[in-house]
Amino acid sequence: MSRSLARSNKHYEKALTRLPLGVTSNFRYWGADKTIYVDHAKGGRLWDIDGNEYIDYRLGYGPCILGYADERVDAAARAGMDVGGVFALSTEREYNVAERIAKMVPSAELVRFSNSGTEAVMAALRLARAYTGKDSYVMVEGGYHGVWDAVAWYTPMKNWEPSQGDPEVVPMSAGIPKLIKELLHMVPMNDANRLEDLFKARGHEIGAFLIEPMMGNCCSITATRQYLHDVRELCRRHEVLMIVDEVKTGFRVARGGIQELMGFKADLCTFAKAMGNGYPIAAVAGREEIMRLIGDEVLHGGTFTCHSVAIAAAEKTLEILDETPALKTIKDYGVRLQQGIGRILKQRGIAHSFVGHPSMGGLFFSSDPPTNYRDWAKTDYSFYEALAPELHDLGIICEPDSREPWFICEAHDQSCLDETLDIFEQAVDKVLSQLKTASGKAPKKNRRSL
Ligand SMILES: Cc1ncc(COP(=O)(O)O)c(C=O)c1O
User: Fold this and answer.
1) Are 65 and 275 in contact (CB under 8 A)?
2) What is the pTM of this model?
3) Measured CA distances, 435 to 200, 344, 353, 398 (Å)
4) Average pLDDT score over the chain
5) 27, 65, 248, 253: which to mutate for ligand 1, most atoms within 8 A of CB?
6) Residue to mutate (ligand 1; options 247, 248, 271, 273; most atoms within 8 A of CB)
7) Contacts of 74 (CB under 8 A, 6+ apart)
8) Distance (Å, rounded) from C-alpha 72 to C-alpha 181?
9) What is d(CA 56, CA 50) in angstroms, rounded to the nearest whole number?
10) Which of 6, 215, 281, 296 has the fewest Cβ atoms nearer than 10 Å?
11) What percent of the chain has pLDDT over 70?
């Protein structure tokens, strides 16, 4: 039986009178009859205002790495509240957290805090331009780096065919100056030759190569170790700074993030999501020589940076991630979840593969996972898109968009796993029977506009 969203639907109508799309981020709008409003969340579970309970694999797009309302972090945040908020002055705690980050991520020699991933990446690009004196920059197709003008560009794949050459680069939003495109270059992931050609031709203008090596916004498609090491060397040779956006992978895929997993060091890196278990805090960090430009030469600040609640939450979250086996618990759960899902799909002869890291894994309905965004656009994700609403109805929240990986938190326990697999099996069978009813047609190709 379908869950009721009567109260959410009603609230949506009301919210629409004051809030565009009835929500506070475009990505929270799932349609007039599907947008969910949250009552509360705890651990790995979330309850909506209709009283529906879900096991949540979105976790706010990754931040709640320990689980919602984690008592250890919330106690620290409450103590942070007693400190007083924001002062247009610093506290001693900021040093403690910077010290912890530098210990966990060796490339993070110096640290500056921000409120969001967007702000941290903005600071990183500014620093790279200031350091190199070069304004152009490179992004990787399929990557996401926030909602600001320089990075809100993408390559629409809807009608793209490889024979057409490179896909067109367009802004994600109206209101983004077209002039920016003159500074931006896009390259496909895992093709170091393409990057080398670009650097040879335009390296004298390019100050930064910005990459999300495990694309947490594109099914966790991951750069190979070889590619990252090649890119590292190319950047060095062409005096381009390598900015590694670890907003999703940071403190999640390893204590030292993707840089530890792949054994390389960024010039600059950015962190946010897992850093404060959901409290709004982010950081740009990197080589001392670059970071020291902040001050005399590079402007960086913000009224709300390092609010005493957020920095206290980050201090406790990072302490837990660094000093306890939380990341192992998370990874093990992810492995068992993928094994269970794999078993269910295999029993039914459904081709599939997993990409990325078990703590933020992408699920593909094909045995050959894509290695870049162009490959992804050619995959058939209609089965996922049919499955996701069934999972929602049965009590699992995953992203309706197949590009978002499934995030795991420390609070996902055995009961979550057992229920998830039970629900997953039911949902798969529902979709299979729908497909059968639709006269046994194979899942149709259904490319999206992004
Ligand atoms: C890799 C990456 N960079 C930057 C951002 C922007 O972060 P925020 O939404 O905190 O501004 C995101 C958000 O999802 C992200 O995944």
Assistant:
1) no
2) 0.95
3) 50, 17, 21, 21
4) 95
5) 248
6) 247
7) 313
8) 45
9) 16
10) 296
11) 97
